[in-house]
DNA sequence: GGTCGTCAAGGGGTG
DNA sequence: CACCCCTTGACGACC
């Protein structure tokens, strides 16, 4: 028997006026003559993003959802090179503590997925430096929430540069210069164009990083690999983690636009996968990456609650019998 | 109140 | 090497 718990990404289709990703571009920032006023505006937006995050967590509790991906755009321009003197954490510290306390109290697993401009295997030192800056932001946010940062931040391997082996070794080289505290925060995910499960496993096993299996990416980019043969090794990358194994689940938009995320998750596709892993792990958390966000989660739960091979636990989790 | 262009980033792909 | 596309949500301008 396996417990399956579902989560969703960043924003809710139900909760109105609650974007955790409001922003200000550098172009807009520069148009404000008074630099101090512009920074205060950034702080206002950030605080609003955090307040919306807290509202989303409360919405999650009401809907019995215990897995949530925080927005990686909580603080606009936090890493901008023109704002090195801005202590963006300080004015937010109270709200961060409140968010962290709420998540802990209600047992909500939170994590991050910075966008694909974080490229840890880039041959360009500037790119790696900026990537580290972004990771540091994520680390400070988690620390500010008083949440253990271990395995809270999922990344792609990075660029392939038409040389898979070389680009994997570049990752290893660059990894050696990453501070230990940041290293421990990272998980790696197989992607849909550059690095297969096999490629990603190579890094995860060598560097002791948990692998987040993305089923949709695998279907889009696997050559002749069968994920089923590697499942035990994927599970093993989580053996020292304080958190249960997690994965990503989404469905192709169409045959033609296979890589794009569909509005909802195809229940048959999901269960073809679950059938294979049943009993291999006591618990698995599945992050739903669908255009319709939490609405996709609710729809999926509606579709599976009548199945004979499941027993419902709450609004977002069930036993797989 | 819809629709379109803009903003940011790095990689990927084309010519 | 030049160029445009990918992706994402927000947001402003426009009718």
State Rg.
Answer: 20 Å
**Could you state the order of secondary-structure elements as H and E?**
EHHEHEHEHHEHEHHEHEHEE
Tell me how many strands there are: 10
Q: How can the largest sheet be summarized?
A: 10 strands, mixed
Which tags fit this structure?
321 residues; alpha/beta; 10 strands; endonuclease activity; UvdE; 10-stranded mixed sheet; endonuclease; single chain; hydrolase; DNA excision; DNA-binding; globular
Summarize the structure.
This is UV DNA damage repair endonuclease UvsE. With 321 residues, the protein is an alpha/beta fold.
What does this entry look like structurally?
There is one protein chain. It is globular, with a radius of gyration of 20 Å. It has helices at 26-31, 35-62, 93-105, 125-144, 164-175, 180-183, 197-207, 215-220, 231-236, 267-277, 293-304, and strands at residues 2-9, 67-69, 109-111, 153-156, 186-189, 211-214, 245-249, 283-288, 310-314, 317-320. The mean pLDDT is 93. The N and C termini lie close together (5 Å). Helix 5 packs parallel to helix 7. The protein is built from eleven helices and ten strands. Strands 1, 2, 3, 4, 5, 6, 7, 8, 9 and 10 form a ten-stranded mixed β-sheet that branches. With 321 residues, it is α/β, with parallel strands linked by helices. Helices cover 40% and strands 14% of the residues.
């Amino acid at each position: 028997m396996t417990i399956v718990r579902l989560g969703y990404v960043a924003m809710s289709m139900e909760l109105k006026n609650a974007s955790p990703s409001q922003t200000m571009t550098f172009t807009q920032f520069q148009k404000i003559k008074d630099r101090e006023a512009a920074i205060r505006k950034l702080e206002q937006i950030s605080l609003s993003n955090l307040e919306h995050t807290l509202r989303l967590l409360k919405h999650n509790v009401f809907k019995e959802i215990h897995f949530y991906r925080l927005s990686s755009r909580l603080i606009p321009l936090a890493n901008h090179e023109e704002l090195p003197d801005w202590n963006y954490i300080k004015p937010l510290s109270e709200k961060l503590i409140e968010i962290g306390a709420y998540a802990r109290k209600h047992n909500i697993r939170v994590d991050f997925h910075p966008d694909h401009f974080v490229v840890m295997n880039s041959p360009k030192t500037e790119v790696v430096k900026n990537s580290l800056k972004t990771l540091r932001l994520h680390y400070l946010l988690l620390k500010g929430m008083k949440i253990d940062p271990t395995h809270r931040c999922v990344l792609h391997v990075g660029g392939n540069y038409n040389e898979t082996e070389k680009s994997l070794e570049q990752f290893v080289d660059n990894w050696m210069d990453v501070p230990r505290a940041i290293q421990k925060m990272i998980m790696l995910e197989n992607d849909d164009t550059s690095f297969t499960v096999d490629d990603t496993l190579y890094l995860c096993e060598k560097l002791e990083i948990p692998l987040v299996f993305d089923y949709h990416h695998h279907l889009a980019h696997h050559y002749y690999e069968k994920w089923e043969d590697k499942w035990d090794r994927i599970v093993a990358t989580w053996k020292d983690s304080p958190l249960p194994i997690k994965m990503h689940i989404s469905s192709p938009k169409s045959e033609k636009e296979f890589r794009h995320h569909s509005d909802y998750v195809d229940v048959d596709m999901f269960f073809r996968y679950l059938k294979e892993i049943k009993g291999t792990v006591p618990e698995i958390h599945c992050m739903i990456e669908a255009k319709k966000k939490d609405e996709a989660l609710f729809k999926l739960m509606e579709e599976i609650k009548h199945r004979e091979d499941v027993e419902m636990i709450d609004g977002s989790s069930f036993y797989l019998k």
